[in-house]
Design a protein that fits this description.
By secondary structure, the chain is mostly helical. It has one domain. It contains 4 helices and 2 strands. It has a two-stranded antiparallel sheet with strand order 1-2. The longest helix is centred in the N-terminal third of the chain and has 25 residues. The chain is elongated.
Length: 90
């Protein structure tokens, strides 16, 4: 087993990896929270192959803030916020 990577001690390499991973998960949780989703979904990024599907599903899912902004322009923000299907009034 290697005792150093790029001339750095192995414990330092592990520390850098842990800090980078933690930073990425915190930022991912923050993005999910801003998008109106639960930040716990970021844990799916730790599972190989599932992470690709999770990012794809997140990208193509309905975005509550975007849908709410569209509804506010139409004057139907209350119905959109509660998730109630509505017909556009004439």
């Amino acid at each position: 087993m290697a005792e150093s990577v790029f001339g750095l001690p192995l414990w330092f390499v592990y520390l850098v990896i842990a800090i980078t991973l933690t930073y990425g998960l915190v930022l991912g949780g923050w993005v999910l929270a801003k998008a109106g989703r639960s930040p716990v979904w970021v844990l799916l990024l730790l599972v190989p192959y599932v992470n690709v599907i999770a990012v794809w599903a997140f990208a193509y899912a309905r975005w509550p803030f975007v849908d709410g902004a569209r509804a506010a322009q139409d004057g139907t923000a209350d119905e959109a916020r509660r998730g109630i299907a509505f017909e556009k009034r004439r």
